[in-house]
Amino acid sequence: MEIITRIPRMMSVARDMRAEGSRIGLVPTMGALHEGHLSLMARAREMCDIVVASVFVNPAQFGPAEDFDRYPRDLARDAELAFTKGVDYIFAPSPEDMYPKDFVTYVTIEGLSEKLEGLSRPGHFRGVTTVVNKLFNITQPNFAFFGRKDAQQVIIIKRMVRDLAMDVEIVVGPIVREEDGLALSSRNLYLSTDERKAATVLRRALEKARTLYNSGERDAARLLAAMQVIIEAEPLGRLDYVAITDTVRLDAVDTISASEPTLISMAVFFGKTRLIDNIVLNGEL
Ligand code: AMP
Questions:
Q1: Which atom of ligand 1 lies at the shortest distance from residue 176's CA?
Q2: Across residues 225-234, what is the average pLDDT?
């Protein structure tokens, strides 16, 4: 495994691999790797000849009051973990190389980026789609692997790939969870012991919605109300949003569709830490 920090080196490796006919898989991450990231790397290892995992805490996707500065960074640990999954190259560029002083080009997916997460995190998806675009250009992947944990990100990236005719197939991995149901996240490291216990409330609320849905409830307002009751009963949690939407336009639905997938997504604050989770009813993303 090689750790590449310079863009030209990564581009020349990717060019050579593609010229040889190798299928390149890219797993974009911000590091602080956990089993969620590693499951995507394992999937990439199965499907591709060459696996590239990028580790880049992308300043463009953080708001000014967000956790860019304190986001956990440990490249040596990340490299060891990635190695265990058979990753061939870690691409870990510097922010200065990715965003040189005169950088002015951004990719925006209009409409979708302003909803759900975008309401609370203005500019977030512009940062995501711009960096993913640049990572695709640098690493030339045939396949790129993303987790359903970030459901809106998956929907937006798939739309970008389709709208801009990008020659890469997006592969979506399932959400990897702790035993008690909490979705793995690098941000779980921020939680105090009590907050960590309380954080299962996201999963509990989503499972309540699924149970109601499975027993025949199709009214979105009733599912939302039941989830809100559960979240409000958790004193350490503060609901940012919970929404029931379609998976194409991300518009709120009144009645859960019998034929189309439906996304239930939420964000909850524990102190300053903001956690997200979701389920998809009646299909996949
Ligand atoms: P991040 O490092 O948070 O930017 O995440 C990098 C990739 O890992 C994204 O595609 C995430 O959706 C994915 N990911 C993060 N957490 C999980 C998880 N618990 N299960 C599966 N994939 C995840």
A1: 20
A2: 98
Q: What is the mean pLDDT of residues 14-42?
A: 98
CA of 182 to the centre of ligand 1 (A): 13
CA of 149 relative to ligand 1 center, distance in Å = 6
Query: Any idea which residues carry the catalytic annotation?
Result: 37
Q: What angle do CA 57, 58, 61 make, to 5 degrees?
A: 130
Does the CB atom of residue 146 touch ligand 1 within 6 A? yes
Return d(Cα 24, Cα 43) in angstroms, integer: 12
Give me the residues paired with residue 144 across strands: 26, 170
In this structure, the residue with its CA closest to atom 7 of ligand 1 is 29
Assign residue 283 a region (left: φ > 0; alpha: ψ between -120 and 50; beta: otherwise): left
**How many alpha carbons lie under 13 Å from residue 22 in its C-beta half-sphere?**
21
Rounded distance, CA 236 to CA 269, Å? Answer: 8
Mean pLDDT over all residues of the chain?
A: 98
* Averaged pLDDT for residues 190-210: 98
Structure tokens, 99: 């965003």
| pLDDT average, residue stretch 274-282 | 98
What is the residue with the minimal CA distance to atom 14 of ligand 1? 147
- Structure confidence at residue 157 (pLDDT): 98
Q: How far, in Å, CA of 219 to CA of 225, rounded?
A: 10
By residue count, the chain amounts to: 285
